[in-house]
Write a structure and sequence with these properties.
The chain is an all-beta fold. The protein has a single domain, classed as Rieske [2Fe-2S] iron-sulphur domain (Rieske Iron-sulfur Protein). The chain is 0% helix and 47% strand. It has no helices and eleven strands. Strand 10 and strand 11 form a beta hairpin. InterPro entries: MocE_2FeS (IPR012747), Rieske_2Fe-2S (IPR017941), Rieske_2Fe-2S_sf (IPR036922). This is Rieske family ferredoxin. Keywords: 2Fe-2S, Iron, Iron-sulfur, Metal-binding.
Length: 103
């Protein structure tokens, strides 16, 4: 079991948008869905190690800004080539106005 780490305030992320979070040498992204839920994945594309922080978020998918690979950010599943390896996902919880991830 990991430690809960504060990422940001809820209001820092608009619906269908994301925030990049770097912690102890790792990069994560936290995404706010159109359903107003929060999800966290590794922040680096599994295809060519590109930061996903500049990726497009739409319809429960994050698209890599380099080669347009897509992932379901709820599960981490690689949905479109060239990515074929899933993203790791991380537990998220909301406490008051704070978004926390368990890492």
């Amino acid at each position: 079991m990991g430690n809960w780490t504060r990422v940001c305030a809820k209001d820092d992320i608009e619906q269908e948008n994301l925030i990049r979070f770097d912690h102890e040498g790792r990069t994560f992204i936290v995404i706010r869905s159109p359903d107003d839920t929060f999800h966290c994945t590794d922040g680096i594309c599994t295809h060519e190690h590109v930061h996903l922080g500049d990726g497009l978020v739409m319809d429960h998918v994050i698209e890599c800004p380099k080669h347009n690979a897509t992932f379901d950010y709820r599960t981490g599943e690689a949905k479109r080539a060239p990515a074929c390896i899933n993203l790791k996902t991380w537990p998220v919880k909301v406490e008051g106005n704070d978004i926390l991830i368990e890492i």
